[in-house]
Design a protein that fits this description.
This protein has three domains: about 400 residues, Amino acid/polyamine transporter I; about 35 residues, no CATH class; about 425 residues, Amino acid/polyamine transporter I. The protein is an all-alpha fold. Strands 3-4-5 form a three-stranded antiparallel beta sheet. A two-stranded antiparallel ribbon has the order 1-2. The chain has a two-stranded antiparallel ribbon with strand order 6-7. It is elongated and about 100 Å long. Strand 3 and strand 4 form a beta hairpin. The chain has 39 helices and seven strands.
């Protein structure tokens, strides 16, 4: 698009028509920012970390409590004065971009570009980065305590801005109330002689004012998004007046609260005033203060990104930034490329985190110089556009006073730090050659390249440029079979059409069956799991933390290297044997639910419910909680290193993982299987690396493990069975694919194939991994180490030993994801059979996932994190019940051979295999009864508790429970846009 200077007449027309709301059907930024949003944007940007760190600087340079309070009030008045002057400019020039738009309008594109360059390329990304680093620093304080932080990584609009602004205001109100209460209860001595020690040095007072004004930074940010503000003539000045007044009052009262608790002497000694206040008032709850600061910085960072992205957008629209930055998302009506560039540039500045504070200090003088220039724009526009309608017309004494104040803030650093000033000016004037080389006299090759990038970005983000007078139509190549039409005749942006041809509607975008909505009107779970996905689900669930922690338990009970390796192979064979028997059941009974479905078909609803009860209420949520705790433990080892891990850090991080994976599973089966695919490949590569390293070490060194492989072999049947138990723990998950049969493509072929491939792969990898461990670790060290894998890494990888916790974390993510995926289907199938609340039968119309069942899986798993001290005991108690249920499911093979002899069986196993597997399951039931009778008794009691539940709430369900269930289901349908499974 060719950008031309507007004539004065056209400028006047634009000024009159800028209030339209997009009703002409043109693609524009959406006017969605209300008065309340505007207030929270200003307050959210201003109240960052400044109020928590600036008070010391103000007090240090002012010298007294009285002068400090005057400076805080004066800083608020100065910011309000500037905001008042900007209100005239913002209601006159109703364009986004703030002072860049005003300077461009008043002094032309060259001066405007210099302001744009320094603001968009340096100041705003630096500000976002500093705010994010502050967030990371304070957010990690509760985790690290007195330990040194190892990592500090940040970034995460108006809804977020609203919530965080309310949160930080509540936090500051809490501080104010606490401080005022303490003022009446105790005396810090701060108000005994409030002007004692007042500095009379003009330089010191100006530096105190500088510190105070730092905390008010952000007062002009709403002017950068005027085009998205509803009724800007009314809401812009109102938002400015309300927010600046509110912030000034809150800041002054907050400082009064600080002085009520902290004496002037302590003010000077404290590194962070807010933390000193918290330590004095809240004691052991002082960790709440870093959380307050973190809330404040998140809101501030969000506001900076929101407003800075619009600066890129406006610059692109004026031809002073790449054309791709003018694109507006058809779906969200936001400048997506500009937002993404803002985030990326801020992340780039993280690489300069050691020098970023110096960099932003260099350009502060330029910032105040630019604000001075914006004030001059007010006088210039009074001269150029004397008859333009002005909602607010300030008395010229106000911009004059503010201009003098800005020039004072420019002169002070020139005198105090001339070198920094020169560097700042040097950075600013780098924009001059860029303007003439790339803007004013842009080469043709750059224009073509910019056009190509813009067209690619349009297709990638489904975004179009803001529409002016011309009609815009962009159509992709015929091969894509996708047309994006944006016509100025459309009455609403939502009318933008995305057309798929008839074949795509049937097959989906990738040519595969997208949903199970048939001509018969059926609505089912989507069959989206391929053979490869199935293999990855089984491998991903099996390979969790077991292979990294079980080897010690196997070796300890087996007594020798040789028997340990034999037991690892036996464990794999036993799992494969069970999988083989389950493959006959899974291809015969093609319902999701695994052994629950088989037991229900064979032995009726009550026995099936007992199995379901223990599985979904205890075993699966406990398993997810244990896996997520393992993830958090290994991740936090990297962060805390030699420091003790706070007890609440592990369950907190584990809860975050569960909630994240629950959300992903509720949104898309494809997303879930992709995560499963990626983590499975990652953990396989990790184990292959361990295997290769171990085999290489086997030839280079001699650990002595294989000199006499069967030396010390235990002959005790109990010890051998416990060793096998440890090995089988690592193979847990071999039957999980049977729980989601209804979502597998061609299950009669893919289910048995996936089982065969995955069980063979895992057995080989587990055996070779143990060979690698033994190649590096001698048998006596096996018994001495708490974590075999960690010891292996320390011996082989040295300084890079941290890679092992990463491997374990990757393994647990895949295992946790697969368990959540399969468990939610167990809830779904149980509800479909009337054994669980009807709400869990609902399928999301948009995502084709059992949304409520997935959510309850995540919530219940998080609740079990509260039992993290006893969760391992609990899951041990129900292991006997688990193997008993698997044994009963194995008996289903014999039952169906008798009751359904003529049913077509894709796989028909030789009966010797289920007999052997059943005998093994019974052995695994009997061993714990002998070894741990108390735990076994607890497990059986938990199992039998399902009987009264079945009769009271399933078999003879009271009418009021049925009515309550129906009402809950209807409410959930409306809330989640979900409906029950529908069959013709």
């Amino acid at each position: 698009l060719k950008m031309n200077d507007l004539s004065s007449e056209k400028k006047m027309n634009n000024l009159k028509s800028d209030d339209d709301d997009g009703g002409d059907g043109k693609i524009k930024l959406q006017r969605s920012v209300s008065l309340l949003n505007g207030i929270t944007i200003i307050i959210g940007c201003i109240i960052g970390s400044g109020i928590f760190v600036s008070p010391k600087g103000v007090h240090e340079h002012s010298g007294s409590v009285g002068l400090s309070m005057i400076i805080w009030i004066f800083g608020g008045l100065f910011a309000a004065l500037g905001a008042y002057c900007y209100a005239e400019l913002g209601t006159l020039i109703r364009k986004s971009g703030g002072d860049y738009a005003y300077i461009t309008e008043a002094f032309g594109p060259f001066v405007g570009f210099i302001r744009l360059w320094i603001e968009a390329i340096v100041i705003r990304p630096c500000s976002a980065t500093i705010t994010a680093l502050t967030f990371a620093k304070y957010a990690l304080v509760p985790l690290f305590g007195d330990c040194q932080q190892v990592y500090a990584e940040p970034i995460w609009a108006t809804f977020i801005q609203d919530i965080l602004t309310y949160a930080k205001i509540i936090a500051l109100v809490l501080i104010i109330v606490t401080g005022l209460v303490m003022a009446f209860l105790t005396s810090s001595g701060s108000f005994d002689n409030i002007f004692d020690g007042t500095s009379t040095d003009a330089g010191e007072i100006s530096l105190a004012l500088y510190s105070g004004l730092f905390a008010y930074n952000g007062w002009n940010y709403l002017n950068f998004i005027v085009e998205e503000l509803k009724n800007p003539k009314r809401n812009l000045p109102l938002a400015i007046a309300i927010s600046c007044s509110l912030v000034t009052v809150i800041y002054c009262l907050t400082n009064l609260a600080f002085y009520a608790v902290i004496s002037p002497k302590e003010f000077l000694e404290a590194d962070a005033t807010a933390m000193t206040f918290a330590n004095k008032v809240y004691g052991s709850f002082a960790w709440i203060m870093p959380i307050f600061v973190a809330f404040a910085t998140v809101g501030s960072c969000n506001g900076v990104i929101l407003t800075a992205s619009r600066l890129f957008f406006v610059g692109g629209r004026e031809g002073q930034m790449p054309q791709a930055l003018t694109l507006i998302s058809l779906k969200y009506m936001t400048p997506v490329p500009a937002v993404i560039l803002t985030g990326l540039l801020s992340c780039v500045f993280l690489l300069l985190s050691s020098n970023i504070y110096s960099l932003i200090n260099y350009i502060q003088i330029v910032n105040w110089l630019a604000i001075s220039l914006a004030m001059l724009s007010l006088f210039q526009l009074r001269r150029k556009l004397p008859d333009a309608p002005r909602t607010i017309k300030v008395n010229l004494i106000f911009p004059f006073v503010f201009l003098v104040g800005c020039l004072f803030l420019v002169v002070v650093p020139v005198v105090a730090a001339p070198i920094d000033t020169i560097i700042g000016l040097g950075i600013t004037f780098t924009s001059v050659p860029i303007y003439f080389l790339f803007i004013k006299h842009r080469p043709e090759v750059l224009s073509k390249f910019s056009g190509s990038v813009s067209m690619f970005t349009q297709k990638f983000f489904l975004a179009v440029p803001e529409e002016g007078e011309e009609e815009l139509q962009m159509t992709t190549t015929p091969d894509s079979q996708l047309a994006i039409v944006s016509d100025s005749k459309l009455k609403d942006p939502a009318d933008t059409e995305i057309h798929l041809n008839e074949d795509q509607c049937k097959k989906g975008e990738n040519g595969k069956n997208k949903t199970d909505i048939h001509d018969s009107g059926e609505l089912k779970l989507e069959r989206s799991i391929t053979l490869l996905n199935g293999v990855n689900i089984i491998i991903g669930v099996i390979i969790g933390s077991g292979i990294f922690i079980s080897p010690k338990g196997v070796h300890e009970k087996a007594g020798s290297v040789g028997l340990s390796l034999i037991l690892w192979v036996c464990g794999g064979i036993f799992a494969a044997l069970g999988s083989y028997c389950y493959s006959e059941l899974g291809t015969l009974i093609s319902d999701s639910g695994g052994d629950y479905a088989y037991i229900r078909k064979a032995y009726g609803p009550m026995i099936a419910f007992i199995r379901l009860w223990v599985e979904v209420i205890i075993i699966r949520p406990c398993s997810i909680a244990v896996i997520s705790l393992t993830f958090s433990k290994y991740i936090l080892v990297l962060v805390f290193q030699n420091c003790p891990i706070p007890e609440y850090a592990e369950p907190l991080l584990a809860c975050c993982l569960i909630l994240l994976l629950t959300w992903i599973n509720s949104q898309s089966v494809r997303w879930s299987t992709r995560i499963q695919d990626v983590t499975t490949y990652a953990k396989l590569l990790a184990l292959v690396l361990v295997i290769i390293t171990g085999i290489v070490m086997l030839f280079i060194t001699n650990s002595g493990s294989f000199d006499d492989a069967f030396s010390g072999t235990s002959m005790n049947a109990g010890d051998i069975s416990l060793a096998l138990y440890s090995a089988l723990f690592a193979y847990n998950g071999w039957n999980y694919l049977n729980f989601i049969v209804e979502e597998i493509q061609n299950p009669k072929r893919n289910l048995p194939l996936a089982i065969a491939i995955s069980c063979t792969t895992v057995t080989v990898i587990y055996t070779l991994t143990n060979v690698a461990f033994y190649a590096v670790i001698p048998p006596h060290e096996f018994l001495a180490t708490d974590a075999t894998a960690t010891t292996f890494a320390e011996k082989v990888y040295g300084p890079a030993a941290w890679i092992m916790p990463v491997f374990v974390a990757l393994s647990t993510i895949g295992s946790c994801n697969g368990t959540i995926l399969t468990t939610s289907r167990l809830y779904f199938v149980g509800a479909r059979e009337g054994h669980m609340p009807e709400t869990m039968t609902l399928i999301s119309m948009k995502h084709r996932t059992p949304f409520p069942a997935t959510i309850i899986t995540g919530i219940l798993s998080c609740l079990f994190l509260l039992l993290s001290q006893n969760i391992f005991t609990l899951i041990n108690c129900v292991q006997v019940v688990n193997w008993l249920a698997i044994a009963v499911a194995t008996l289903c093979v014999f039952h169906f051979r008798r009751t359904m002899p003529n049913a077509p069986r894709v796989i028909k196993v030789n009966l010797i295999f289920p007999i052997l597997f059943f005998a093994g399951c019974i052995f695994l039931v009997v061993v714990p009864i002998i070894a741990e009778p108390t735990d076994t008794a607890i497990g059986i009691v938990i199992m039998l508790s399902g009987i009264p539940v079945y009769f009271l709430f399933i078999k003879f369900r009271p009418e009021f429970i049925s009515r309550f269930s129906e009402k809950t289901t209807v409410s959930m349908q409306k809330l989640l846009m979900a409906i029950p499974e529908v069959k013709s």
